[in-house]
Amino acid sequence: MSISVKYFASIRERLNRSEESLAAEGICTAGEVWVRTTGEALPANVLVAINQEHARAGDTVQDGDEVAFFPPVTGG
Amino acid sequence: MSISVKYFASIRERLNRSEESLAAEGICTAGEVWVRTTGEALPANVLVAINQEHARAGDTVQDGDEVAFFPPVTGG
Amino acid sequence: MKIRLTTGPLDPWAEVSTYQQEQASIAGQFGATAVFVGTMRQLNQGDAVRAMTLEHYPGMTEKYLEKVSNEAGERWSILDSLVVHRVGNLLPDDPIVVVAVWSAHRADAFDACRFIIDELKTRAPFWKQETTINGRRWVEKNT
Amino acid sequence: MKIRLTTGPLDPWAEVSTYQQEQASIAGQFGATAVFVGTMRQLNQGDAVRAMTLEHYPGMTEKYLEKVSNEAGERWSILDSLVVHRVGNLLPDDPIVVVAVWSAHRADAFDACRFIIDELKTRAPFWKQETTINGRRWVEKNT
After folding, report:
1. Which of D59, D60, D128 is facing A74, going by the closest CB pair?
2. Would an 8 Å CB–CB cutoff place B45 in contact with chain C?
3. Which residues of B28-40 are buried (b: 16+ CB within 10 A; e: fewer)?
4. Which residue of A1, A39, B56, B63 could cross-link B1, Cys pair, CB 3.0 to 4.6 Å?
5. Nearest to B68 by CA among C63, C125, D29
6. Is C54 part of the contact surface with chain B (CB cutoff 8 Å)?
7. Is the pLDDT of residue D44 over 90?
8. Predicted ipTM?
9. pLDDT confidence of residue B41
10. Residue A76, domain member (yes or no)
11. D3 with D81: CB under 8 angstroms?
């Protein structure tokens, strides 16, 4: 098991990847996932979803979770 | 010239006529038109239009005007 | 801006679609369309309604709906509007009225559309007469 | 209640008309239908937009729109709702989204329809990328 990480829109383009897999060891929160995969602090304007539901950077993630990062939405 | 009087919906049915013509002599207001044609006082729930615009019983009517009486509207 | 009364069947979605296609000048300009459709229900005040006749005041009705549509255009930033109202004989499930408003943004479209149908319902000279199992009756209260 | 995402052309009026005909159980029950259609504009923030790509988060988008539609059904008295949203490549004047709500009365239909599109616009995971004469750019502000 591991954490599945997804990126969308301008975040996906900037990081130049749309998804990746991350070992869950030592990770507690969604914000920590971002730090681990990007090497930078989570910017304030990056939104977070855990298991396809809106979440906060400080929310807990577990092995097997899907964590997504994306910019403010602009649909409709 | 004269005043053209119209009745709609339940008012038309109760009076058993849809329109008539009335000599304008001695008539000042829409309410007086009703009194002259029906012989009764204008009921509070009867609405008035003068020349196809919403009006009040006390509004002035003139020779050549079209005066209409109808119940509260129930369209749409 | 268009106002139309019709005694024939009313297909609200075709009315809106056709009118929109005819208004070449607003193509690419509107980001928001708000539409309201009023439809005849089978039940009104607890009684099964079999049929309905809609009476109106020819001339005043069109005049009043134009006035309301113009007022909507003054109060909100809209690009166009359409009101089509059926009169005469109707059956349950028949569409009665469609109001459509085109605007750059959605708040104006919603507000103007709601204003037009609210004014139409409370002030436009239309009267419904229902046929139930107990005979005909004039609808006395607006919904 | 239905949620649908589509990459093909979207005819909002046909979507609403077809869905309504399929829902035999609400025929005769609804007196009010409120519809909102969002359409791609040629101008955004002063620049001519030639084309647009709509990205979304497959899975989460549907989940979120279902949640919002359910919430609308809890907050207002409605009979049914429909949300169809286009994704992928669009051109100016292309419809992007349609939201329709059926209810016995108009206040519920309007309120629920507006709630769904407002939530969709501010929270559903869709992202617009515009192509202008200066190239591609992500839309950063919702309208």
Report:
1. D128
2. no
3. ebbbbbbeebbee
4. B63
5. C125
6. yes
7. no
8. 0.94
9. 96
10. no
11. no
Tokens 């988008």, located at residue: D61
Residue B76 lies in a domain: no
Residue B46's domain comprises: 2-70
Q: Is residue B64 part of a domain?
A: yes
**Cα(C81)–Cα(C115) distance, integer angstroms:** 12
Using a cut of 0.80, tell me whether the model's pTM lies above it. Answer: yes
**Any alpha helices (H) in chain C, and if so which ranges?**
12-22, 60-75, 106-123
Residue C116 burial (C-beta neighbours within 10 Å; 0-12, 13-18, 19+): buried
Class of domain C2-138: alpha beta
- Please state the domain count of chain A: 1
Q: Give how far C121 is from chain B: nearest CA, Å.
A: 5
Q: Is residue B9, in this structure, part of any structural domain at all?
A: yes
Phi, psi of D50 (to 5 degrees): -90, -35
Query: How close D63 comes to chain C (CA, Å)?
Result: 24
Tell me which chain C residue has its CA closest to the CA of residue D33: C37
Residue type, C127: W
Q: Which helix (H) or strand (E) holds D74?
A: helix D60-75
DSSP 8-state assignment for residue B60:
B
Distances (CA, A) of B50 to B65, C54, D50: 7, 22, 53
What CATH number did the domain enclosing A61 receive?
Answer: 3.10.20.30
Q: What is the mean pLDDT of residues C71-85?
A: 98
